[in-house]
Give the backbone structure.
Amino acid sequence: SGASELTDALWQAIAEVATLRAAAVGPRGSAALQDAIRQQLAAFDITRTGFLDPSTFSKAMRSYSPALPDPVVEVLRGQVCQADGKVQIDQLVTKILQPPEPPAPRASPAPPKPPSEAGGPLWSALRRIRPALHERSLRLPTVFQRWLPAGSTRLSKETLGLGVAGLVGSELSEAQLQALFAAMSKHPDLGTSLEDFLAAFGAASGVGFEVFARELLGRTGRSLLRRAKGSLSGAFHTLDLTGEGEVRIAGFRAALLQFGDLNLSDEQVNATWELAKTIGGYRDDFMDFASFKKIFAAGSVEMSPT
């Protein structure tokens, strides 16, 4: 069921954080790792009884995932507690380190794809151009200068079209090129200045930006996982700049700029952070591992129809 899948994902997220804190003392099934996690949980067993009551269980779970709401904590406790409501620490260690059961095979329809023109032809063009710039490590002022005709300070519609075609490998549609040129030309008869060229790439709201930002999170997630050799906990540790088991906006910004789009403005980074908060389900100024997993586990972000 959906609830079962959710709790399984939460136990897995808790296991990832607990293992990360154990500083790789041994593989998942090892006695050394079990002892390390038992010591983590025993820190909440003030009376040294080997059990956690509802209050100390809640504190223990939130030490791994601070944003867990009370009803979710109760569901988790209900899966491991005894008749008196207490949770035996040894049994909890076993539950945390229990490998997930493989999901039952089921047919599922392919996720809906966003319309290619989401946000109109302008964003359709920008969503082709921006990844190509990042892949070639090209900043916007540099590419503007490269596309300028000799002796000119402005781009015409024709020279803009030629430059983009050389960058992305094919011509934009007429509607895309017209929308792009219109967005960056206050005076079309004079052409596009550097200032107007940069401004056209600066939008940070609307349906077009949201689709772009979701694709950006997907590219960033795939690159993070490749760099961490497929390890979610390794990717999370890379962005946890403070070492406190959480990713704040500074680590998030660094990941976006390094792995997603080097031309992002601060406003666009902040808007993407807010979108990630919605996807990950966190409200504070940091994401814990459970939220990180929701955003980056698949290495891409599923699109919503617009």
Notes: The beta strands are 51-52, 87-88, 247-248, 286-287.
